């Protein structure tokens, strides 16, 4: 990155594109050594067995469906970030403010996980919003593999206007898109493919009327 001014101009172009076409990308989202540190961390945790098979759906609808997605994930804990993760969260916070300023989007939080696609893994075409809730507004995927080559597969295919575009998962590229309307898929990857995937969220618009876990024993009889 050349200067803060240049970074700001880049970011505002990206945000214009996000508004116009529903997706954008920022290359060099973090410095090379910051990406390398995140990549080393993800690799170490993967080798230590800390990742879990990813599923689809939330809460009681959660299912492991290797026919739909076969990646493995590890959620980040915002309250206990490593040094590399702290830099990532700070960068995300800057982006959150930019998006809110440009769109009055009311994004209040962010959740993120590391993901690994082992050789052969994929994620079929989908939207990132759960059908049961609309609090995921903007998706954000940051890639960690240095020297990625097209022949490894593993591109992110974004579907837009009856067409599609393939994005190579190269270290430092961050793809940002609307969670409610941009269909996308991860094509089968032939190499271990690492990323940090996250979602900007709004406060849920409709609050549940009743907490299902609340004690529902009958109230004591009158008198
Ligand atoms: O890794 C990617 O390129 C996209 C991942 C994805 O679509 C997801 O986790 O919902
Ligand atoms: Fe997705």
From TrEMBL:
Gene Ontology biological-process annotations: cellular response to hypoxia
Fe2OG dioxygenase domain boundaries: 108-202
A Pfam family reported for this protein in Swiss-Prot or TrEMBL: 2OG-FeII_Oxy_3
Gene3D superfamilies, sorted: q2cbj1_9rhob like domain
Descriptive protein name: Predicted proline hydroxylase
Cross-referenced PANTHER family: EGL NINE HOMOLOG-RELATED, HIF PROLYL HYDROXYLASE, ISOFORM C
InterPro entries for this protein: HIF_prolyl_hydroxylases (IPR051559), Oxoglu/Fe-dep_dioxygenase_dom (IPR005123), Pro_4_hyd_alph (IPR006620), Pro_4_hyd_alph_FE2OG_OXY (IPR044862)
Known cofactor(s): L-ascorbate
Gene Ontology molecular functions: ferrous iron binding; L-ascorbic acid binding; peptidyl-proline dioxygenase activity
Keyword Nucleotidyltransferase in record: no
């Amino acid at each position: 990155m050349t200067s803060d001014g240049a970074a700001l101009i880049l970011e505002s172009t990206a945000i214009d594109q996000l508004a116009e076409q529903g997706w954008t990308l920022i290359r060099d989202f973090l410095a090379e050594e910051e990406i390398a540190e995140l990549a080393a961390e993800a690799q170490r945790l993967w080798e230590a067995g800390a990742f879990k098979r990813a599923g689809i759906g939330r809460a009681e609808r959660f299912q492991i469906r290797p026919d739909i997605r076969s990646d493995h994930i590890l959620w980040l804990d915002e309250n206990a970030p490593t040094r590399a993760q702290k830099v990532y969260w700070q960068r995300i916070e800057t982006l959150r403010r930019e998006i809110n300023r440009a769109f009055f989007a009311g994004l209040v939080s962010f959740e993120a996980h590391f993901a690994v696609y082992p050789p052969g893994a994929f994620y079929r075409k989908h939207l990132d919003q759960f059908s049961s809730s609309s609090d995921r507004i903007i998706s954000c995927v940051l890639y960690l593999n240095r020297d990625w080559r097209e022949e490894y597969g593993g591109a992110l295919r974004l579907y837009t206007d009856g067409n599609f575009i393939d994005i190579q998962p190269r270290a430092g590229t961050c793809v940002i898109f609307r969670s409610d309307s941009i269909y996308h898929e991860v094509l089968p990857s032939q190499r271990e493919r690492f990323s940090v995937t996250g979602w900007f969220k709004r406060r849920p618009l409709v609050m549940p009327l009743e907490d299902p876990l609340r004690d529902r024993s009958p109230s004591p009889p009158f008198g």
